[in-house]
Amino acid sequence: MKIKKFIKGTMLVHIMLIIFSFIMVGPFIWMFLTSIKTYEETIRIPLQILPKAIQWINYGIVYDKFPFLTLYFNTFFITLITIVGQLLVVSIAAYAFSRLIFPGKNVIFLMMLGLMMVPGQIFIIPRFQLMVQFNLTNTLTALILPNIFNVFGVFMMRQFFSSIPKELDEAAVIDGCGYFIIYWKILLPLTKPGLVSLGIMVMLNTWKELMWPIIVNRTMDKMTLSAGLAMLIGEHTTYYEQVMAGAVISVLPMIIIFAIFQKQFVAGIARAGLKG
Amino acid sequence: MKKIMLFVAVCSLMLSLIGCGKQNEVANISLMMWDEAQSPVIQQSIDKFNEKNEGKIVASIELVPWDSYWTKLDASLETKESADVMWMNVYLPKYASAEVVKPLDEYIEKDKLDLSQYIEGRVNAYNLDGKQYALPKGLDTVFVAYNKEMFDRYDVEYPQEGWTWDDMRTIAGQLRDKISEAGGAEYPIVMELDDQPSWMNFVVQNGGNYISEDGKTTGMGMDESVEAIQNMVDLMNEELMAPYTVLSETKGTDLFISGQGGMVFIGSWKASVLENSTLGADGNIGLIQMPALNGSNSSVLGGLGYCLSASSKHPDEAWELIKYITSEESLYNEAVNGIDIPAHAKAQEGYVKNFKNLDAQVILDASVTGFPYQSNGNFEWTSYVNDAVQKALSQIAPVKETLVEGATQAQEVLDELYK
Amino acid sequence: MNKKRRNYSARKRKEAATGLLFIAPMMIGLIIFSAYAFFQNIHFSFSKVGTFGAPKFIGFDNYIRAFTDPNFFIALKNTLFYTVFGVSFVIIFSVLIANSLNKKVKGRTFYRVSIFIPAITMPAAIGILWRWLLNYKFGIINFILERIGLKPVAWLSEAATVKWAILLVLVWSMVSYYVIIMLAGMQAIDSSYYEAARVDGAGQLQLFFKVTIPLLTPIIFFSTIMSMIGILQIFDFIYLMIQRDTIAYQYSMSMVTYFYELAFVKDLRGYASAVSILLCIIIMIITVIQMYLQKYWVKYDN
Question: For a FRET experiment, which of A11, A37, B217, C214 has its CA 20 to 30 Å from that of B71?
Fold first, then answer.
């Protein structure tokens, strides 16, 4: 009786989850298996699933060919500075939209909402030319600057500020606190979950963005990991064991970070989604 | 008042100090190029150059992959912060007409540089309206590589010098039959799909053209061009060549060096790839001139040169670099390292010596009958014909109709340009 | 009395000034990088813009060109194909997977981490990975197909299949992210709804269709809009997986891929601007239609 119930109830769920998990993880397993084969093994017909001997040397080869440390540094540096920039620019604007009354507030806010609808490609050519005029092509600044002014971030952070009871800052006003103090000392600490979401958004964005870096920057030492990897396959399509080794090096750290901070990550993404 | 005077005096003193500092400063110049494989050897020349000019000039390489090279070059030329010296190919007219690269004539005259030491065709390739815009680096030829091991295994005779298109079909046919008998998965012929190492050769051999000599009309709709493309489609249909689907996913060179192709049309820029492959190291790669279609085995002759940016802050030093890097000494070094066929006649002998696994004389000989890569430096019209060729090769549309239509569209663009 | 009012309005003035000051950095950035860029783009779309030299006004030529350019229509058709199928599959699969994950089963954390991995993997890695998996001769997908007695498919090079290959990778890579969002939505559903339904004798399936789905509609709506906007701008996988200058590239290219080609490969910046504006208009229209339709199927819980 119990077994029957188990089969009816959770067995089916388990089977489904195993299938889905396999579909999601399977490709990564193949990525790893390819990365430890010899070239001959990767192009054998019929396919050879496991390597005869593990070829860690592929990792050495691709590490020598490809400046992973620089790319990792660039990616984290860009993420960090963008987050700091957004903290200064985005959240303070969100605070103003949530709490303060000033002329043109609603009109400006609506226009910003409108901007959210506009696809990014609209801005790319003029932004590229702006970067050219500012002499910022092939710099990390070019990858940071346009991303600081995150409209979605303002929208999301405003929701967070609005969810904090107004009584809190009204009391502070009576105590004679200035607006900046209220924002910085009282409200900002309360929007920590929002800031985490904002940080995760920036991180995922820097992590994933491809078109802008390959357009505006030109040398490998000014690329993010993602763009660098794209450039790597542009040049080498022959030796998949090396390319896969490169891919493993680029995805593994993020997977580890994710496995550790799984809860925070998921909560952050969900919040960013649901608040918007 | 006194204070102000003092301030001015101090300021001017500081300024003059900065000025002094600047005069003794070395000139930092850079060279932009795209080929990762060539950079270690070119770095050797750069190192020597820096040694010779110690305390005066420091040159360095700025490596940008091919995929993004031209975009980056455009952007950096526009901002006037480009590298001082850069690799240039058939795109030169675009840069020359925008005046972002500098004519070299005054320097050539000043230093009495003898241009006849270079291969003539390559000097002329960079001469526009009587102005010399670049010094030639090297040249590219196209030839055929074949897999000796595969020919031996299937007991088919190697291609012989002086072979024709029909000979090639016969040989490929023998290979095809033996392969299918043995249940193998190899292809008799593979190729790259871009113009230079493949179809442009046969179009011109057959009497057609990609663009006329005056650069105003495209001949891709001509019967000769259509026939040449049809010939290639026939190869695929008769299973003499790998199908389009395979070729568009994996590059012909990659298929060949992984032992899956019997023969490949290939460019000299891939010679070191052949040399260093396992197949090559085992002595299993044979080289031969292109087969003759319609009596001619002429093949595309390409090449690179070095240009000087018009916005260079150190044009004199940059010129010194160009001069040194195209000198017999540097080009000989490139030759013995096998990265490029030198455009400098005396340096060429170094090229053959370098190859241990390949008969590189074939590569040099191909340049004798070569014709220059056909281009007018404008790329607005090319996509129409290139797309049409791809459509024809993939056989999603009839060859003749597609090519004629593509050529007509391209011609409209060309007419608009030269109105 | 008078003094108090003045104080009050002085405070108001100060508040207004502070508000403007606080939004100033954001506004300056947006004016330069968004507003200026936006109008500049419109300006370009009416001009001939090359790499060097000033733009030249040519009226509606770029737009006329788009409507007579077969490649533009291929790109448009492909983009709509990706959007319609991509959004449907992403939503269906993410709801199904989230629903399974929402059950109290052993090893949930393991399943969750596994299923979420693609969400944090960069598209560049996903692109090269799938390019390898889908390889015609050496790919494991074709190996599996052959093992189960099917013919191998030239996923990335046949005009007829390349779109489906891109769609497959697109859905695979996007589902994870939306599972996270759907799951959060499901967990926010008050359990009293389920209890009430159970009292009424509802089974698992009925619970799913009668309780979960209706209460999830706001999240589904949000996800539809977001995934739609995302897919309408698809670029990465096509750029990464398909060899340029082949027929497959043409048959899989999206509007953004075409935009990139025009602007940064072919140097036709003016025409590219016009294409980007047409894309923008299409996104606006579809979004407005969605917003209008939502009142017929989205149930807000209040």
Answer: B217
Asked if C125 and A47 come within 8 Å (Cβ–Cβ), the reply is: no
Report yes or no: B266 and B193 within 8 Å, Cβ to Cβ: no
Residue of A238, A240, A243 to mutate when probing chain B, most B C-beta within 10 A:
A238
Q: Check A123 against C117: CB less than 8 A apart.
A: no
Q: With contact defined as beta carbons under 8 Å apart, do A266 and A189 qualify?
A: no
Helix (H) or strand (E) holding B319: helix B315-325
* Bridge pairing between strands B300-308 and B371-372: parallel
Asked if residue B311 lies in contact with residue B80, where contact means CB atoms within 8 angstroms, the answer is yes
How would CATH label the architecture of C71-297?
Orthogonal Bundle (1.10)
Regarding whether B349 and B278 lie in a shared domain, the answer is no
| B205 and B307, same domain (yes or no) | no
Nearest CB neighbour to A210, from listed C130, C185, C236: C236
* Domain assignment of residue B7, yes or no: no
Instruction: Determine the Cα–Cα distance for residues B127 and B254; give it in Å rounded to an integer.
Output: 35
Neighbours of chain A (3+ CB pairs under 8 A): B, C
Q: Which two tokens stand for residue B187?
A: 């292809």
Q: Residue B276 maps to which CATH number?
A: 3.40.190.10
CB atoms within 10 A of CB B367: 22
Tokens of B397: 């549309």
Would you say residue B11 lies in a domain? no
d(CA A167, CA A188) in angstroms, rounded, equals: 15
ipTM over 0.85: yes
Tell me the pLDDT of chain C (302 aa) as tens digits. 455 556 668 778 888 888 899 999 999 999 999 999 999 999 999 988 866 667 888 888 899 989 988 889 999 999 999 999 999 999 999 999 999 888 888 888 889 888 989 988 888 999 999 999 998 888 999 999 999 999 888 898 888 899 999 999 999 999 999 999 999 889 888 888 888 888 888 888 888 888 888 889 989 998 998 899 889 999 999 998 888 778 888 889 999 999 998 888 877 889 999 999 999 999 889 888 988 888 888 877 65
